[in-house]
Amino acid sequence: MRNQSKPAIEAAFLNVEAAAKYMGISVNTLYVWRHRRQGPPSFRMGPGGRVMYRRDLLDAWLNEQQQADSRSNPALDPLTNASRQRERRRAA
């Protein structure tokens, strides 16, 4: 009989360790961001108050970070914007 692996079920909620691994950062970085209220939204769950992250909110937060970066978003590229401003000045 062949060993058939079942498809993995993706968890909707991730603890700090799993969220850090999912994002490719250290656990310490995630704790620092949480302390400074800079990182993705988190909450405490359960009687022990474990810090948890929703996977969909992690994805949304990462997407926001990508869109806010000029290397990922051509509309924010200072070199492109500077050349547009020069063209406007020449036309005036």
3D architecture notes:
With 92 residues, the protein is mainly alpha-helical. 49% of the residues lie in helices and 12% in strands. Strands 1-3-2 form a three-stranded antiparallel sheet. Helix 1 crosses helix 2. The protein is elongated and about 65 Å long.
Classify the secondary structure makeup into a structural class. Answer: mainly alpha
Radius of gyration: 21 Å
**Spatial gap, N to C terminus:** 78 Å
Percent helix: 40-55%
Q: Strand percentage, roughly?
A: 5-15%
Write the layout of secondary structure elements.
Elements: E1 13-15, H1 16-23, H2 27-36, E2 43-45, E3 50-54, H3 55-67, H4 78-91
Helix pairs in contact: 1-2
Concise description?
The chain is mostly helical. It contains four helices and three strands.
Question: Which features would summarize this protein structure in a list?
Answer:
92 residues, mainly alpha, 3-stranded antiparallel sheet, 4 helices, single chain, 49% helix, elongated
